[in-house]
Amino acid sequence: MDLKNLQKRTQELKQLLDPKRTEREKKEEKKKAMSRGLAIGAFLGGLAGVFFAPDKGENTRRKTKEELEKIKENLQTEIVEGKEKLGVNLAEGKEKLTDIYEENKEIITEKFTTLKEKVKGQPEPNVATEEELEVDQEELAKEEA
């Protein structure tokens, strides 16, 4: 199984386990985009206001420094909030997975036991060794030639 199929199946399983997950992810992406947009807009607006205002160079530099400090504080606040939200989301996800596992633990165990018993009664699978496969490939090559 290649990586793309594995990732696709993982996403499908996540969707089955938590149907509202994609909806939450979309909301989070919108919030992130909005925050980025606000930060960039504030930065550009501040710069435009500073540079288009008729003022002395010293005052312009002071205002620019103040605006950059505000932007820095906003970004630091956004980063801290993002880390907190990530921690909360991870904790909630872990809790949900644990709950789902606990709810379905008996069913999974029963099905596994049933399958294990069915397999016990079966004869050993017919598995070819590497040497046998090489011989078969050589024979096929001879037949095709």
From TrEMBL:
Q: Which domain of life is it from?
A: Bacteria
Q: Which InterPro entries match?
A: YtxH
Annotated spans, Disordered: 1-32, 119-145
Report which residue ranges the record marks as coiled coil.
none
Q: Name one Pfam family in it.
A: YtxH
Compositional bias (Acidic residues): 129-138
Keyword list, A-Z:
Membrane, Transmembrane, Transmembrane helix
Question: Does this UniProt record's set of keywords contain Secreted?
Answer: no
Record keyword Cytoplasm present:
no
Its transmembrane ranges are 33-53
Record-given protein name: YtxH-like protein
Where is the organism placed in the taxonomic lineage, from the top?
Bacteria, Bacillati, Bacillota, Clostridia, Peptostreptococcales
